[in-house]
Amino acid sequence: MNRIIGKTPFYAIAAMLFAVKTYLVYRFIFDLDIENGLQEIILALNPIATSLFFFSLVVWFKPEKQVKYTRRMALIGSFILYFNVVYFRFFSDFITVPVLFQTSNVGDLGSSFLSLLSIIDPLLFIDVVIIYVLSKRVSLDAQPVLKRAKFRAAVLSIALLVGNVVLAEMERPMLFVRTFDREYLVKNIGVFNYHLYDIALHSKSKAQRVMADGSEVKEIEQYTEENNKSKQPSDLQGIAKDKNVILISAESLQTFVLNEEVNGKEITPFLNDLVEDSFYFSNFYHQTEQGKTSDSEWIVDTSLYPLSRGAVFFTNSENETSATPEIISDYGYTSAVFHANNKSFWNRSVMYDTLGYDHFYSEEAYDVNDENSIGWGLTDKAFFKQSIKYLEAMEDPYYAKFITLTNHHPFNLPEEEQSIDKYDSNSKTLNNYVTTVRYMDEAIEQFFEDLKASGEYEDSIIIIYGDHYGISENHNKAMSQFLGKEITPYEHVQLQRVPLIVHIPGYEDTSTITKVSGQMDLKPTILSMLGIETIHDVDFGTDLFTNDIEPLVVLRNGSFITQDVVYTADKCYDRETGEELDMETCEPTKSQAQSELRYSDSLIYGDLFRFYSTGYQEFEEKNKAN
Ligand code: GP9
Ligand code: MN
């Protein structure tokens, strides 16, 4: 035995044993999805790099301490891994700092805690036992004492770790900025580095929160009062009082596909018809940034801006909020989100509680198999079909949000599911896109039929909106072929338009509304339709059915759109013609747009709703009182 470990530093042997165990846990307990060779390499490299990095820290101590700390490192590391294993068995998720403070989660585990333990669990500590036994026989002379040996250990472990991060970035660009999903993070940087990253994220947002004292809110309230609050009630105020609200977040749906054809076939035949029979906002913009779908959810439910980096759903999931589901729960509404993806994606499982949702029907609520999955998971058609039973079981009135998935990049669809030809351009993405958009159109059509058949349709209003763009700037050449015009910075802003369709069954006096609007406006519009009036709240949206407010749509990158102008990349354009105007025309609104973004950021980073109590009342109540 002594001969085997004779010359090798003890920390390195321990690191290797620990790495092998970690790899096996990743592979067989966390069951991380491996989609390609690079992911395979990362998953094998990461435990080695990370273990070596942490265990090699002991070389800076005296040899006897090195041995002692190596043992401790193995024990602590094993417990961290084991806690994650137990947590994962219950939540299919990884521990975050806020979770450690969420005692209610521990409550959830309750009596089932014992059932989470398995007879294989002692095996998860086998390396610790081996390390303890070996540590008694290790020769202290073989431990690094010279500076050179110490530096060699440090350089090697850091190099491996950097290699791991570089590969992870290649595999998932912007992994850290977007912080998509804990599973991706763990898959790419391992569970230990993920914990460090999570602690850093947490400390940063906590620090900003600690600095805030709430004095800013008055000024922000005054601003939003003056600029966004209508003086006159809209014509549709209370039109949907006590009705169900069904929101459909249409993945990657952009306005440019509506009323367009490919080889003589409409891309969105159902939506084109629906538009005729609904309020359709033809100049409605998404306002999302890196948080993509989650940003759109944030904007729609809170009427605040997303952040310029990261996703609020991750960075500020513990904030106090004033979100639609929570507000309307006071008026008898139950709320739910339906989305057949992993519930930790975009930290939804945590964030939906924060926003006040009562239920979240995630992947677990659906029967998902190879036959009914395409691309990111369950097909939209199967998703809507399987959702109906849950919707029927919900207590009325409800606020139910459906998030579709099939029309997601890279927009792959098996040939037999394609009802229209692919587009023909140099962009495979755009070529595919039209086919998946059409698939989603058919899925929504089928959902409408099922809503009617199940009797849910009559008592509901149905609001469909695109969550964000699907075709990025990288496809400008193909887009300019599709649109028959050059994609200038002005056109690029115009391409951020996504459809907004407000469908009120039985209501015939509908129209296409061309005034400019954005996702930010949905919260006040919905509340107003439900007959709920704001007494005081801070948000940046306006009721879209009022006419006495000059519309202003600010995009997260500082571009903005008014009835007259489009401002982007330091240039001012006429909104109708796209002609460039003098910057002076845009200047005053530019500073207003900047302050809105700043105000919204301080509300989020400072968690200012802690210091502010919002107030609502029923529209009729106020009338009665007057
Ligand atoms: C995933 C879905 C898509 O659950 O919301 O996310 P995206 O990449 O569009 O943000
Ligand atoms: Mn999306």
UniProtKB/TrEMBL annotation:
PANTHER family in the cross-refs: LIPOTEICHOIC ACID SYNTHASE, LIPOTEICHOIC ACID SYNTHASE-LIKE YQGS
Presence of keyword Translocase: no
Lineage: Bacteria, Bacillati, Bacillota, Bacilli, Bacillales
Keywords: Cell membrane, Manganese, Membrane, Metal-binding, Transmembrane, Transmembrane helix
SUPFAM superfamilies: Alkaline phosphatase-like (SSF53649)
Cell location: Cell membrane
Species assigned in the record: Pontibacillus litoralis JSM 072002
A cellular component annotation (GO) from this entry: plasma membrane
One Pfam family cited in the UniProt record for this chain: Sulfatase
Domain Sulfatase N-terminal residues, every copy: 243-532
CDD domains xref list: LTA_synthase
Transmembrane segments: 9-29, 41-61, 73-92, 112-133, 153-170
Name of the molecule in the record: Sulfatase N-terminal domain-containing protein
Domain of life from the UniProt record: Bacteria
Binding site for substrate: H408
